[in-house]
Amino acid sequence: MKIKKLIDSFNYAIEGIIYAFKTEKNMKIHFVAALFVLVLSLFYNFSKLEMIAIIVTISLVLIAEMINTAIETIVDLITDEYHALAKIAKDVAAGAVLISALNAVFVAYLLFFHRLNPWVNILLTRIRNSPTHITFITLIVVMILTIILKAYFGKGTPLRGGLPSGHSAIAFCLATASTFISKNMLISTISFIMAFLVAQSRVEGKIHSAFQVIVGAIIGILITILFFQIFK
């Protein structure tokens, strides 16, 4: 029961993210901007602290937008008429989003401006020697794309059912990344067997259909191959 309650809690949390993405135009813009920055970061040899700054900044913007959505929803639930205090609540929440967005622009300026120069080839060479960084970014992109597709098709819950299978996408993403990094047939075979078992368990448990699992696997494999072919 405790495990079920924990899984339900994750479902509710991710459903909140999906709701904000589906209903808020700014949330869609933030997601696109986050994907763009994460992909762009592959071109630069950021330190751990710089990557932490990027991740925290992206998270801050998304969190602020979600809190703003929650406050607007609560205000609309309480009253559908104009009220000065309701306006203040919405304006303050919107102001928090604005501050977080301006902070993101400032951080992006500090981290990217001096790196946007004609010596892209030198930076790409550094990236080729950083497979861990590529794997991390690829995994995030696969997860975000899965959430977007689940929101679009609107079936199942974030962690159970729906198109595509997130577990399958992540499992085959990691298996493909392991193949590129290790370049070892045994490790590659074991990785894909484990990914297949994850996918099979989703079908056997009647959580996903075979089609949903296959689509998830294709997404995980293709995105990982694309990233490693471009950046490695």
TrEMBL record:
Its cofactor is Mg(2+). The chain crosses the membrane at residues 29-46, 52-71, 92-113, 133-153, 174-198, 210-231. Substrate binds at E65. One of its GO terms (biological process) is phospholipid biosynthetic process. A divalent metal cation binds at E24, E72. Pfam families: DAGK_prokar. It is found in: Cell membrane. Keywords: ATP-binding, Cell membrane, Kinase, Lipid biosynthesis, Lipid metabolism, Magnesium, Membrane, Metal-binding, Nucleotide-binding, Phospholipid biosynthesis, Phospholipid metabolism, Transferase, Transmembrane, Transmembrane helix. One of its GO terms (cellular component) is plasma membrane. GO terms for molecular function: ATP binding; kinase activity; metal ion binding. Mn(2+), Zn(2+), Cd(2+) and Co(2+) support activity to lesser extents. Residues 89-228 form the Phosphatidic acid phosphatase type 2/haloperoxidase domain. It comes from the Bacteria. InterPro entries: DAGK, DAGK_sf, PAP2/HPO, PAP2/HPO_sf. PROSITE patterns: DAGK_PROKAR. The active site is at E65 (proton acceptor). Gene3D superfamilies: 1.10.287.3610, Phosphatidic acid phosphatase type 2/haloperoxidase. ATP binds at Y12, E24, E72, E81, Y82, H83, K90, D91. It is a multi-pass membrane protein. PANTHER family: DIACYLGLYCEROL KINASE (PTHR34299). Belongs to the bacterial diacylglycerol kinase family. This is Diacylglycerol kinase. It comes from Thermoanaerobacterium xylanolyticum (strain ATCC 49914 / DSM 7097 / LX-11).
